[in-house]
Amino acid sequence: VSEGQIVDIRVASYPDDSFSGAVSLVGKQADAQTGDVDAFASVPNPSGQLRPGLACRLQIWLPEIQNAIVVPVAAITDRDGTPVVTAVRDDKAYQLEVRLGGMTGELVQIISGLSPGDLVAVEGGYDLPEGCPCKVLLDPQATASSAAAVRR
To answer: DSSP for 4-65?
Structure first.
């Protein structure tokens, strides 16, 4: 997140309205416990609808990343502080260390550790032994960009 990035704001008191602005300040230090960094946005308010104390949700638009490998957040697990995914190759399960990039509420970018077209478990793949035989069950509603589910 950096200064100048576009933000969209939804205010609970005005559910049918949205407001736009830009990131005006990004904190210099992360919270030691959560890793969160404060960011502030400037939002034009010509009608005066926005007042201090109103509950709101803010969405920061990050730059589009072309040709990124992304998986559902549910596919990421933690092994001793290292993010891993369970990938299925040749009908066997393998836990692969991955380096994470940008994340939304539903998807996370994989910077390294996976290749385009790799199948990853989004269900039932946690803690499978390395090389464990498995059967891939594709969701009939899945698209080419959807991940597969793996069951023991």
So the answer is: T-EEEEEETTEEEEEEEEEEEEE-SS--TTT----EEEE---TT----TT--EEEEE-PPP-
Q: How far is CA 20 from the centre of its chain?
A: 22
Encode pLDDT of 95-143 as tens digits: 999 999 888 778 899 999 998 888 898 877 777 888 989 877 766 665 5
pTM of the predicted structure, to 2 decimals:
0.58
Q: What SS3 state is found at 134?
A: coil
Rounded to 5 degrees, φ, ψ at 74 are: -60, -20
Cα 49 from Cα 31, distance rounded (Å)? 32
Determine if residue 47 is left, alpha or beta; phi over 0 gives left, psi from -120 to 50 gives alpha, anything else beta.
alpha
